[in-house]
Design goal:
This protein has 568 residues and is an alpha+beta fold. It has 14 helices and 22 strands. It folds into 2 domains: 5-37 and 57-264 and 276-288 and 299-319, Endonuclease, Chain A; 328-567, Endonuclease, Chain A (2-Layer Sandwich), CATH 3.30.870. The protein is 28% helix and 19% strand. The strands form 4 sheets. The chain has a 9-stranded mixed β-sheet with strand order 10-5-4-3-6-7-9-2-12, with helices on both faces. The longest helix is centred in the last third of the chain and has 17 residues, at 501-517.
Length: 568
């Protein structure tokens, strides 16, 4: 995502801090009372995805591509394997939409790159496109609450899913104000969808913000998305509508006013930061939209954020090579949030996205690759791995190292399974935090090259954020889910399951490049853990958690024995 000049730096709490705060709030739940409550009798006008995608320019383009390809499958895909591609695709969909734009996200951070997306959304609304934005409410606090200003733009609707009643000045304050709803506090809408005219969409693990597009100066998330077209988008839209029209989706105006957002946005006294240069090839216009005025600093959606972007329109949707393939959407029902696991879509009826991932794993005949930033398998998944290894299936896992993990608590959960996994023959690889040098894997500028490569902050810490499972180099799943008990039991998730040898092999090449240049291989030698660097790497083997401070290692050792898996 393109970054830009900002009058003050946006500070967002990392997932690890959020998890720790949730745990602390849980511990305090029985000690405090008298908390705030949500409004009742809130009007929620029902609306649905655009019913005639084939009547839009995007829909007509998809139909023409299908005819030209002579495809038998009804859905098509393109891997967005770099930060610039991921951002440019979103801008292209916004600018190409003629009727509707539907966005569903766990977190949207109020920073420079988000301001560009919000400005494009506002311009789309002004030309008559209906814009719906559905956000989980956990992160809409402090600086990030300013994203909610979009709700007060004509033609834009914003709803918050499973909202918290506390104030929005800080996350910790909201948690303390929501202790009477601690069970609901733990259950979050983790879905990520981006849909245009019900004809094209994007699905993956990426939230919206500088760190998800390689533009944060301190830490960036390594991720991958998929551009989707055809019938699968209609399935994605149906999932979006089920959340949008759910009683847990509250219009922003029922929870916060524009005046309250103004009060939260008192300017900091610090001097403005220097302008940030956008990724090379960042798009500001798209093929299917008329040329529009250049972005300016006047009247921004986000106060104190001034976008500054390169004007090279690199993303040309008409030149994107699509791969047509059979596919299925796996989507948790909103009822999973209701707190009743026996409800349809609940964690105990075998119908969750994670249960779908387990079924996918069972189908592997000779090779299974798992990429999950937070990897806490639990007993059920461990039995799957044991059965797979007994059948001779090679099982490889890429997850975060302690140094690259933004959630030390989650790493503590993973660490308790590490020795047992290695003992049964599962191959473990851990992402290295420092990806300087010849790194060319997931999220790097050496992406597919079809529509441009990404750019990142060379001196920032890398943190794996991709969520993907590939079986037998042909069947793959990409989505919002982590392979941990929080994703299975607490959060709602969404994932794309498709069968395509070309796409699976493309993804495997990216992962193999990551393993070859940017990850440690963990081994069990004489009963001790050893982290082996790739051949020719500048970094070295280690017999302790590599690149992690002694204090961080002590923290994980302290958390490990006490934190239950499902809370990590």
């Amino acid at each position: 995502m393109p970054p830009h000049a900002a009058a003050r730096r946006s500070v967002s709490l990392p997932a690890g801090v959020v998890r720790l705060l949730l745990g602390l709030a849980t511990a305090l739940a029985g000690l405090l009372a008298g908390c705030a409550s949500l409004p009742s009798d809130v009007p929620r006008p029902v609306s649905s995805a655009w019913a005639e995608p084939a009547a839009t320019p995007l829909g007509q383009w998809v139909a023409a591509r299908k005819t030209a390809a002579g495809a038998r499958s009804d859905s098509a895909f393109f891997l967005l394997d770099s930060e610039a591609l991921a951002f440019n695709a979103r801008v292209a969909l916004i600018d190409g939409a003629a009727r509707t734009l539907d966005l569903q996200y766990y977190a949207v951070h109020a920073d420079s790159s988000t301001e560009i997306l919000l400005e494009h959304l506002r311009r789309a609304a002004r030309r008559g496109v209906r814009v719906r934005l559905l956000l989980d409410d956990l992160n809409t606090v402090g600086r990030d609450a300013q994203v909610l200003r979009l709700a007060f733009e004509p033609g834009v609707q914003v709803r918050l899913f499973n909202p918290l009643p506390g104030n929005r000045a800080s996350l910790f304050g909201r948690l303390l104000g929501s202790l009477n709803e601690i069970a609901q506090l733990q259950k979050r809408m983790h879905n990520k969808l981006f849909l245009a005219d019900n004809a094209l969409g994007i699905i993956g693990g990426r939230n919206l913000g500088d760190a998800y597009f390689g533009q944060d100066k301190s830490s960036n998330f390594v991720d991958i998305d998929v551009l989707t077209a055809g019938r699968i988008v209609r399935d994605m839209s149906a999932s979006f509508d089920s959340y949008w029209n759910n009683e847990k989706a509250y219009p922003v105006q029922s929870l916060v006013s524009a005046a309250e957002l103004d009060a939260l946005n008192r300017p900091a006294s610090a001097a403005p930061e220097e302008a940030v240069v956008a990724p090379a090839g960042t798009a500001t216009t798209a093929t299917f939209a008329p040329a529009s005025e250049a972005l300016t600093a006047s009247d921004p959606v986000l106060p104190n954020v001034t976008p500054s972007v390169a004007l090279d329109p690199l993303m040309n949707l008409q030149q994107v090579p699509l791969t047509w393939a059979p596919s299925v959407l796996l989507a948790d029902e909103p009822g999973k949030i209701d707190g009743a696991d026996e409800a349809p879509g609940g964690a105990d009826d075998g119908a969750t996205v994670i249960d779908g991932m387990l079924t996918l794993m069972d189908q592997a005949r000779h090779d299974l690759l798992i990429i999950s930033p937070y990897f806490v398998p639990g007993d059920k998944m461990m039995k799957r791995f044991e059965a797979l290894r007994a059948r001779g299936v090679r099982v490889r896992v890429l997850t975060n190292s302690l140094a690259s993990n933004d959630a030390p608590a989650a790493h503590a959960g993973y660490a308790r399974y590490r020795t047992a996994l290695l003992a049964m023959g599962v191959q473990l690889h851990e992402m290295r935090a420092n990806q300087q040098g010849n790194f060319s894997g997931l999220g790097s500028s050496g992406g597919s090259g079809a529509a441009g490569g990404g750019a990142g902050s060379a001196n920032s810490r890398a943190s794996l954020h991709s969520k993907m499972v590939i079986a037998d180099d042909s069947l793959m799943a990409i989505g919002s889910m982590n392979l941990d008990l929080r994703s299975r039991l607490q959060n709602t998730e969404v994932a794309l399951l498709l069968r395509s040898r070309p796409l699976a092999r493309q993804a495997l090449r990216l992962v193999d490049a990551t393993l070859a240049t940017g990850a440690y291989r963990v081994a069990l030698e004489d009963g001790q853990l050893v982290w082996h660097a790739p051949a020719g790497a500048a970094f070295k083997d280690s017999r302790r958690e590599p690149d992690a401070s002694v204090g961080l290692q002590l923290l994980v050792n302290l958390i490990g024995p006490f934190a239950p898996d499902e809370m990590l």
